[in-house]
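About this split. The held-out portion is used to measure sequence recovery: a designer receives only the structure tokens and must propose an amino acid at every position. Recovery is the fraction of positions where the proposal matches the reference. Here is one held-out target exactly as it appears in the evaluation file.
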């Protein structure tokens, strides 16, 4: 199956719709949480690594914060690396992963839809790359020449 370019992930996605094509990095936080900003800055410095590993940053914000957030971060982390969830999907993701409204949590979801990493602090790109590169599916992608 060919790997889709990151820019093909539609706005208004669901976590389930990203399955098989991407590795969503769900970032649960309030829009003004400094840890959210730290995590996005970490990712913004390594967008090629994100693309190589089909990682999409998926901020999971409180419902009334999404528009202000999109204006602020759209220029820093381009849309091809940042996905906006469909209406109601944030609440669904919070229930699925058992995340409270005020919690900061980063969850890496594999292409198989399973949770691969959970952290209450920002995650470095090195940590993400090492984990992803150790996965059998990523090893197959490397062998088959799919690097992003």
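Reference sequence for scoring:
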């Amino acid at each position: 199956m060919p790997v889709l370019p990151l820019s093909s992930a539609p706005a208004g996605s669901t976590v389930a719709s990203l399955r098989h094509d991407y590795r969503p990095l769900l970032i649960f936080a309030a829009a003004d949480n400094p840890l959210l900003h730290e995590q996005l800055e970490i990712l913004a410095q390594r967008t090629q690594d994100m693309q190589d590993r089909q990682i999409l940053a998926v901020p999971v914000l409180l419902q009334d914060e999404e528009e202000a957030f999109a204006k602020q971060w759209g220029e820093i982390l381009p849309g091809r690396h940042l996905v906006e969830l469909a209406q109601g999907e944030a609440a669904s993701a919070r229930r699925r992963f058992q995340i409270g409204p005020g919690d900061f949590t980063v969850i890496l979801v594999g292409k198989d839809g399973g949770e691969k990493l959970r952290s209450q602090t920002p995650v470095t790109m090195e940590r993400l790359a090492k984990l992803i590169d150790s996965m059998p599916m990523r090893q197959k992608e490397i062998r088959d020449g799919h690097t992003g």
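Annotator remark: The longest strand covers residues 23-28.
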